[in-house]
Amino acid sequence: MTFPFAEPLVPVDLRPRVIPEPPRPGDPDGEPCRICGQDDGIWSDRNWVLHNPAGGSLPGTVWLASRTHADSFADLSDELATDFGRVAARVERAILSLGDVGRVHVYRWGDGVAHFHVWFMPRPLGMLRRRGTCCRCGRTGCRRRHPKPSTPPAAPSRPPCTPPWTRGRRRGA
Ligand SMILES: [Zn+2]
After folding, report:
1. What is the pLDDT of residue 152?
2. Do residues 82 and 69 touch, judged by C-beta distance below 8 A?
3. Is the distance from CB of 121 to CB of 104 less than 8 angstroms?
4. pLDDT at 164
5. Looking at residue 124, what is its pLDDT?
6. What is the CATH number of the domain that holds 46?
7. What pLDDT is stored for residue 56 in this prediction?
8. pLDDT at position 137, please?
9. How many domains are contained in the chain?
10. C-alpha 10 chain-centroid distance
11. 74 CA to middle of ligand 1, Å?
12. E strands along 19-164, which residues?
C-alpha cells in the first residue's frame, strides 16, 4: 500500500502522554454522549443504527452504532457481540452490491465518543495503491521481514511542515 503523498515527510515531536486520560464524551465523567440521541439513520433494527457520514467524500461509506450505550467490543453483551457479526456482514454485502467496490474495510477507532460505532469504507475497484499491507518498503503486498534501522532517525533539520489547508490562516481564525 502506498499513500497519496510524497516523501520526505517531516516528523514532529511527540507530545507528553497524559495519564490518567481525560474522559471522552459518553464516559462516566465526560460530557453527554453524542450518539445516544441518534435517529434511525438510513437503516436500523432493534440493536443497530446505520448512518451516512456528514460531509463524507467516499461514496458508500457508512457508520454503524449500537442502540445501547456501550463503549467498545469488550463492553458489548454476548448477544450484541454475536449480532454484530450478522449485521456487519449484511452491511458489507449491501456496500458490495453497489458495484465498483474492490473491498470493504471496517474501522473502529472510537476515541471521539465512548459509544460503540464502526466505520465501513469501500475501496474503489481497481484502486490498487490502496490495496495491500502497509510496508515501509512501499511495495504492495510485501511479505518480507525488513530489518529495523540500526540507528534512530535523525532529528528533523527543518521545522515541521504546516498543512496546506492551514497556510495563510491566522491562529484561531
Ligand atoms: Zn451513548
Report:
1. 59
2. no
3. yes
4. 45
5. 93
6. 3.30.428.10
7. 77
8. 63
9. 1
10. 23
11. 15
12. 43-44, 48-51, 62-66, 101-107, 117-124
CA 25 to ligand 1 centroid distance, Å: 8
Sheet holding 48-51, edge to edge: 43-44, 48-51, 62-66, 117-124, 101-107
In the chain, % helix, strand, coil (3-state, to 5) comes to: 15, 15, 70
Distance 33 CA to ligand 1 centre (A): 5
Q: Structural domain of residue 90, as residue ranges?
A: 24-135
In a domain, 111, yes or no: yes
CA angle 23, 118, 140 (to 5 degrees): 115
Say which DSSP state 151 is in: S
**If you measure from the C-alpha of residue 13 to the centroid of ligand 1, how many angstroms do you get, rounded to a whole number?**
34
C-alpha 51 – ligand 1 centre gap (Å): 15
pTM of the model: 0.74
Cα of 135 from ligand 1 centre, angstroms:
36
Tell me the CA–centroid distance for residue 69 and ligand 1, in Å. Answer: 4
Q: Confirm whether 150 is domain-assigned.
A: no
Nearest 10 degrees: Cα torsion 95, 98, 102, 103: 0
List of the chain residues with pLDDT < 70:
1-2, 133-173
Inside any domain, residue 170: no
The pLDDT of residue 163: 45
* Residue 15: inside a domain: no
